[in-house]
Amino acid sequence: MIGIPDVTGGLQAQRSRLDRALDALEEGAALLARDSPADWRGPARDAFDGARHTVRGHAVEARARVSDARANTDAAITTLAGRAG
């Protein structure tokens, strides 16, 4: 049988992975905040800007999902800690 400490340890490991994922998403968002290269003109610049806009939208959604998962993980850890006592 799996005990509360085992589950809590697994949840804490999951929390660490979620923190790293959120850090990576934030780093990616910072990279996307940069402007396209100044010497790019016309279709190349339009393609870069369009791709950046699309990826930004996905990054915002991913950050929200990771933040939600992290909050749920924290709640589960708190609940288990209360039961363990």
Automatic annotation (TrEMBL):
This is Uncharacterized protein. It comes from Diaminobutyricimonas aerilata.
